[in-house]
Each structure stands twice: as structure tokens, then as C-alpha cells.
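User: two proteins, same treatment. go.

Assistant:
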Amino acid sequence: MSAIMAIPEAFLKKQGIKNPKILIFGTGIAIAGIIVFFVIRKIRHKNAGQYSSGRNYEEMSDQLANLGIRNSNVTLSDDEATIIAQNLLNAMNRWGTDDDAIIDNISKAKTKDDLLLITQKFGILPYDGMGLSDTFLSNKIGAVMKNLGGWIRAELSGSNLKTVKAIYDKFGVPL
């Protein structure tokens, strides 16, 4: 290893750099950081569509508009459903997932139509593997349009996913 470093070290000393080993080491760290960045970006981009429904946005929008919500079975107001949907987005957005908040908010649905209304209010949002894709570049490169179920499947795992799935199953709504 010292023979490999001897050539650039001798060259850098001729250029007037007092401690070339620090410069060489720092350059190596920077290159390693760039490589790690691109590897993480590649993995994130590859997994971004893992939980995608495979349907296009228009088809998903039509399906949300036609969920068949029966107003007579809804126990939540539109405002309550909107707040719950926003709470769910906040619990899943960016770094970390607040699993308890997701379970607590989904549990507020007392009927199938409540759950469908919350899903409708959540809408279809661009998911980039870490939450809401809110930049132009991210929307074009790594984001996948997902409804509430897609976000939940991407964000939860293990017993927490089973708990939420049980709530969906209780109402006969696929997650």
C-alpha cells in the first residue's frame, strides 16, 4: 500500500503540500462517500416501486372517486376524515415512521365506509421511498404514485403491519 501511495505522495510534496497523506486520505473518504451515496440512491430507486399497484394515476384516481362510500354508514365528518388522513401522512412522511400514530388513526374508522372515506381523503400521493416526494426532480425520477394502502405497506412491517391489516380485513377492505 505504501508503494502505491509513494508516487502521489512524492508528487504532492514537489507541489509544496506539507502533509500529502492527509490530502490522499481525505480524497479517499470523499470518493467512498460518493460511492455510498450512489449505492443508496440506486437501492432507493429500485425499491420505490416495490409496493406500487402497477396501475396508472388516472385509473387509481377513478377508483378513489368510485369507492362506493355509503353516507348512511359513515360515522366521521369530512373534516375528521381529512384530519385523520393528514395525521397518517405526517406519521409516514420522511425519516422514521410513527407506527403507533398509524394504528391509532386507522383505528378511528368504525365502519368500512369510514375507512374508505379516510382512504379517499388521503388521496394518491407521490412516494419516493422515504415519504412524500415533494421536489420536481424526485417526482420525475424515483417517486411512485400510491394510495393510503400503498403507503402503509411501504412503511410498516411485522406485527404493526399485521395489526393494520387486521383492521382492513375486519371491514373487508384490501390493504
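Protein 2:
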Amino acid sequence: MQSPSHRRLAVLAAATALGLAACTTELDPTRAVDLDTARAELEAGRAIMIDIREPREHATGVARGARLLPMSQLRSRASELPADPTQPVLLICNTQNRSSLVLEALREQGYRHVRYVHGGMSGWVRRGWSVVPPGQ
């Protein structure tokens, strides 16, 4: 029997496949960070950034140092999520729709050290910040 949080991740993956996502526009600092903070934390090594976009999206470029863990694979690769509560984790997708939903599912599983990046990779690219091919 699946736990409620595993079912939620499965629903989120299905919603992504259908192009459905809830819109999140408010910035709650206990749940989200802005792009400037995310970039500074990643580059300083103070946070782990996990890019939950799908491989076809990763192909357009990723933030240097981000770990790639597609939302559709979260359930099967959940062990790759950092469990250390002292290690900040930042989730990033294209905007913040999927990452804010995944945050809620992870919070239900006890991940309190995870936040999402408000603005996502689309905001990153709009600012002219560099991206690298996946795997670099």
C-alpha cells in the first residue's frame, strides 16, 4: 500500500505529464527563496540545488552545480534526496509551480530543510545567468 506522500508524488508526476500545475505566486521565506538567494547559496556551496525539470528541459541548460532529479523520477529515486536536516536543499523547476508542489509532498514526509526557488530556471535565464549542458 502506498503512503499518502508517495501517492501525492505519483499524482504530481501525472499532472506534470498532462501539463497541469497549480500557480504559486506568493513568496514565503520558510518555503521559498528568491533567485538571487538561490544563486548565492548554490555558488557558495551552502545549499544543494535539485533541478526537478524533466530531461528534455535539462537539455536546454542547467545551473552549474545543480543535481538533476526529474520530478517523474522522484518516487523511484527518493533515496537521492539529502536527508540531513542541516543541509539546505533548494528545488528548482522552470517557474516554481512544480517545485512548490513537490515541496509540499516532501514536507509531508518530514523534509523541513527543503525550499523551492521562486522564479525557477525561466527567471534564471531571463537574468542572463549562465547555464551549462547537463552533466557539467
